[in-house]
Amino acid sequence: MTAERTFADRHIGPSPDEHARMLEVVGYADVADLIDEAVPAAIRSAEPLRLPPALSETATLRRLRELAAQNEVLTSMIGLGYHGTITPGVIQRNVLENPGWYTAYTPYQPEISQGRLEALLNFQTVVSDLTGLPVAGASMLDEGTAAAEAMALAHRISRRREPGTFLVDAGALPQTIEVVRARARPLGIEVIVADLAGGLPDGDIFGVLVQYPAADGAVRDFTPLAEAAHERGAKLVVAADLLALTLLRPPGEFGADIAVGSAQRFGVPYGFGGPHAGYLAVGEGIQRQLPGRLVGVSVDADGRQAYRLALQTREQHIRREKATSNICTAQVLLAVMASMYAVYHGPEGLTAIAERVHGHAAAIAAGLREGGVEVVHDAFFDTVLARVPGRADTIVAEARARGVNLRPVDADHVGITCDETTLDEHAAVVWEAFGVGRPAGATGDTAAAVPAALRRDSVFLTHPVFHAHRSETAMLRYLRWLQDKDIALDRSMIPLGSCTMKLNATSEMEAITWPEFAQIHPFAPVDQARGYLELIGELEDRLAEITGYSRVSVQPNAGSQGELAGLLAVRAYHDARGDARRTVCLIPSSAHGTNAASAVMAGMRVVVVACDDRGNIDLDDLTAKIAKHRDDLAAIMVTYPSTHGVFEETITQVCAAVHEAGGQVYVDGANLNALVGLARLGEFGADVSHLNLHKTFCIPHGGGGPGVGPVGVREHLAPFLPNHPLRAEAGPATGVGPISAAPWGSAGILPISWAYIAMMGPDGLRAATEGAILAANYVARRLAPHYPILYTGRGGLVAHECIADLRKITKETGITAEDVAKRLIDYGFHAPTLSFPVAGTLMIEPTESEDLTELDRFCDAMIAIRSEIEQVATGEYDPQDNPLKHAPHTAECLVAGDWKHAYSREEAAYPLPSLRENKYWPPVRRVDQAYGDRNLVCSCPPPEAFED
Q1: At what angle do helices 31-38 and 750-783 cross, to 10 degrees?
Q2: Which family does the record claim for this protein (predicted)?
């Protein structure tokens, strides 16, 4: 009887027969022999993973339904930066649930990313227009961390050498205040929280943060505060509600230098706290200091408009030990959703939604006043603060019994926040809970609630894109038009080294849009989120088992944030032991740029350790650096397997040497997919790691975000994990403070990784790791006769990725790694990682999910390109006029009447016969990066801007 195929069989691409053929090419009889040779015995786990047996997809979804049923979905009127919103069905189905959008990668290769780049440019335009500031980034991780980045930005542009003081208004969101404090502490910045209603206190400050509207709903005119801050040489940061800004005077018009906030209420569900797109916008002259990603407009080789990441961003300010930010990602998928919400509704629709929200709040306030309840603020947008001496808890309980969550501010005050989902019946529940009954004719006087001096009179979203897609048909076609411009995993393999672009199974994704997971407010009473807490607890426990750590926190909502959390735990550990002098962090020269950046953000001093000519840590240099810094050594950060894609044999010696000197070992978990089921970080010497759920554990990249970067620690560091001011359950009381704005970070996508682990089981997880290592070595062996493989370990083997070295080829022929990357587009592939970690190379990671047909299709493309390079070397192709130098080729350039190239149109378009059956046509030719930097345009340009 034939055995039924398991989920692991479907996740792992090659069949058993294909595995056998791959092993034959690599030169091993079976996978066990390959793993024994490739993975050092010193790190191998003696015990298999102690995880529950694999569940079928049906059983997994049944279990997720059981967990979801434990959550209680009430109407939330809690506010605090999180709001109910209606996701248009056309956006939910065609963006959030569409693999053409959610499996795309970060748009480092702009020619095959024009669709999502345009969507991000729309997002930047929305933020810029609504805030009244000229430049906005392509999204931040959340509102709290955006405020912390704004604090660092304000300090940077103040050009002060000393840490200085940052002033925060008491009306800011409580989670934002605590995130800012947590980020300021290691940098030595003093954060003062004060009521700024009466003006600025005395003292030297470099920046001021205010909330607009405030957490308690109050709307104030900050013009005098902006003037006072500027007189003192300080920058004003305004945390602003984007929907409110359709009615309120924008920050840029009253003197704000920087605006931050969240786009969550533009069609993105609560998700128990995330993922959501934060935003950061700046005034003129600050744009080149902006952290994170910035989409700009440039031109392609034919002079046509094209989008790309501006200012040469891979990660603009990830400058190793000179870093000013460790933000290496964005929330692209969520920013796309928010931008499309604005495109779909347009300025009139957004304004109408805002007026309806404000009208409900005004009506509730009027009804409360009519019933004798004191409403604290006369000017507000969506939040009413009621004073009810000694009755707050009773009123909140009464409302909850009627299906509505209100916010208990303290014993005497209750907050009521309206949003897009608020109905008249919710207002009636509020009045009943306050004991005022249903008022007669309580209506909202919007003119009274927003003073004339604060009402917006400037236009916004005037670009045609925000007026052209009102019907669902038009919106559907616009989304499809953008999607078709890009290469995502639904179209072909994305062989990116260090980024692990593998299958994101539909069954893993299914639960995230269920209301029981999507519609829970992060600050809802915890007994309404029992299913969430059980799922999170199980996921943390299973990640701890997989990594060999004692505890895991899922709060960090990106890998860089997990790095920071881990290093802050190390610092807190040393401080608690009276070793505050330990601030040196050793980092190998091959490390990810975020490693050094995170160390700087954690207040550490980076000391670089050299690598030898095989890409391994130079033990002699390490020994010398440890000896020099023995008394102030805090930690070493290493990536394992190494950034060069090799299992270093000396990792246990490295760990032992650092421990002997009193330091801690941080192992970057970016490459954990080469270890799961084979080795545990906590067992072979590591003390702390971040994990990338958007790599190893199948949360899709979403075009460059969302991500989750949990931090795992051994027992002695557990007291210093992140915690949260509004949720004691989210971390230890002795923790380092919140790393993200929400207690459990991007909780809304954790069901994806939970489902992956549940369906794979311990055997499937190990098989996936073995499959990834086999695939990488298969690709390396097939390509080695054509491209030198730069670094290998024992037996000439690599780990889960390999680096093809083109430097000698470039020297001999002039063909660069970038030329190969662009030519791969003509073959229908996204390029491997370009010039990282070594300039002039391509780092290739095939993953376990690609079957042999696709692996061979990629290898055949690379080999065919090598043949084209040889034609350049022999003179058959002109050194400058050849298919590689002019790649990629659009359909338009191929059908142009005057073909001026020495090679044929057929050679350009169909370098392999198979492409005639399934051809991806890039929308633009090679993008001119330098032009875009010289002529920086970062919002939707008018149609006539490129007429020439």
Answers
A1: 90
A2: Belongs to the GcvP family.
Per the listing, tokens 């920013």 go with: 335
Query: What's the confidence (pLDDT) of residue 209?
Result: 98
563 and 473 housed in the same domain: no
What integer pLDDT is reported at residue 319 of this predicted model? 58
Average pLDDT in the 19-25 region?
A: 98
Q: Are residues 435 and 288 in the same domain?
A: yes
Based on the fold, state whether residues 647 and 561 are members of the same structural domain.
Answer: yes
Residue 691 has pLDDT above 90, yes or no: yes
From 733, 750, 767, give the residue that closes a domain.
750
DSSP codes of every residue in 376-398: S-SSBSSEEEEE-TTTHHHHHHH
Query: Same domain, yes or no, for 564 and 457?
Result: no
- Considering the entire predicted model, what is its pTM? 0.97
Task: Quote the mean pLDDT of the chain.
Answer: 95
900: exposed, middle or buried (C-beta count within 10 Å: 0-12, 13-18, 19+)? exposed
Count of domains in the chain? 2
Q: What's the confidence (pLDDT) of residue 508?
A: 98
Of the residues 480, 503, 527, the one at which a domain ends = 480
Share above pLDDT 70 across residues of the chain, in percent, rounded to a whole number:
97
Residue 242, C-beta contacts closer than 8 angstroms, at least 6 positions apart:
126, 127, 130, 131, 261, 262, 263, 265, 266, 279
For 270, the token pair is 């609560």
DSSP-derived secondary structure for 88-106: -HHHIIIIIT-HHHHT---
| CATH number, domain containing residue 737 | 3.40.640.10
**Number of Cα atoms under 13 Å in the Cβ half of residue 24:** 7
| Domain range enclosing 644 | 557-750
**pLDDT tens digits, 59-74:** 999 999 999 999 999 9
Examine residue 942 and state whether it is found in any structural domain, yes or no: no
Please indicate, yes or no, whether residues 606 and 692 belong to a single structural domain of this protein: yes
Indicate whether 604 and 724 sit together in one domain: yes
User: Is the four-CA dihedral 10, 13, 16, 18 of positive or negative sign?
Assistant: positive
Q: What is the per-residue pLDDT across 571-581, written as a single tens digit (0 to 9) for each?
A: 999 999 999 99
pLDDT surpasses 80 at 144: yes
Whether 466 and 595 map to the same domain: the answer is: no
Q: Which two tokens stand for residue 652?
A: 């246990």
Can you give the pLDDT at residue 948? Answer: 39
Q: What whole-number distance in Å separates Cα of residue 759 and Cα of residue 757?
A: 6
